[in-house]
Design a protein that fits this description.
Helices cover about 45% and strands about 15% of the residues. It is of the alpha/beta class. The strands form four sheets. It has a seven-stranded mixed β-sheet. The protein has a two-stranded parallel sheet with strand order 1-12. Bound molecules: pyridoxal-5'-phosphate. Pyridoxal-5'-phosphate binds near residues 108 and 220. It catalyses: L-aspartate + 2-oxoglutarate = oxaloacetate + L-glutamate.
Amino acid sequence: MESNWAHVEMAPPDPIIGVTEAWRADPDPRKLNLGVGAYRTEEGKPLVLACVREAEAQLMADPNSNHEYLPIAGNAEFCRLARTLALGGDCPALQGGRVATVQALSGTGALRVGAEFLAAHLPSTAPRVVYLPSPTWGNHKTIFAKAGFQVREYRYFDAATRGLAFDGMCADLASAPRGAVLLLHACAHNPTGVDPSPQQWARILALAQEKALLPFFDSAYQGFASGDLDADAASLRLFVRSGLELVLAQSFAKNMGLYGERAGALSVVCKCKDTAGRVESQLKMVIRPMYSNPPMHGAAIAAKVLGDARLREMWRVELKGMAERIISMRRALYDALYERNVPGDWSFVLKQIGMFSYTGLSRVQCQKLVNKWHIHLTLDGRISMAGLSAQKAPYLADAIADVVANPQ
Ligand SMILES: Cc1ncc(COP(=O)(O)O)c(C=O)c1O
């Protein structure tokens, strides 16, 4: 009998995860993986933070620990600490008890549960339309489309300046239908590394208010962008303080290095405490048939680090160290390009923020970096600064100089 799946077609490889697979298979000793969205040490190795190791050791040593199920909404202490980290201890919405929070399967899971909740519970008069920056993290489109949203884009990256297309962004938001969902990267925009200035954030807030847009903040890099947890939450806090209702997806993958532990949280900021209680009950209704309840370990680690003054201070210092190494890689690459007189204005390498730099290199140039130079990256020209080292920066600059001089 023929297989029920004989007709199933091979799905295309994931554009980001495929880069690491290609890098692994590349036998050349000079190879470099600049596709990876994870922090690497100067030696190119994954990093387990000392505060995380210590929190883990404490958890292991606890004779009362067990493997019982968590509640549907997850670890309540973790949820409380996570949202306070994002919104700030003095946040009026937190003090008013009007934030509903559930633990989530890292940032992706928070986005998916949030999108499903909105699709089911936005007012019937609101359009099921989401506005995403162009470009954005590839998974955003699929997550919202799977939840039943019509996906539209707003202009974000200006290829000419390699900065923000602010006028285009404002024009697109001004023409959005009332009540549409507006996805915003809280900081360290992925893939471009371009963030609005404080003045521009204020204008975006005003537009969201005028058009009654529902902000959905994706915070995957708090503390990882500037090294300062509060500075990286400024955009989100500005919006919350304005009194708007909004949604927040948080990930501890990058800033605590808990990638595979899937530690994240979803918060919905509501107008009043009573609404927050009802919203939380409906978030649980989304989660229960999806995966019942979240995993324990990552959230327990994050709760220990956030809740213990000494571990939290260790984390702050280690997080700053990661952010600073990335910033120093920007300088190393910029200097190496400058020394080689590579044509063009490369100052964007210094100005862009967070893990990635969006180089503006063409697909053909990127393919050449992969095939000739064994430098693996996504073909949209995004490079992970976290994958670079001081030792490898000159090699990357040689390669970029070559593909800029010979673009075909
Ligand atoms: C902008 C953005 N949002 C969300 C995520 C989700 O990451 P995770 O599900 O690993 O927390 C990422 C990861 O790269 C990201 O860059």
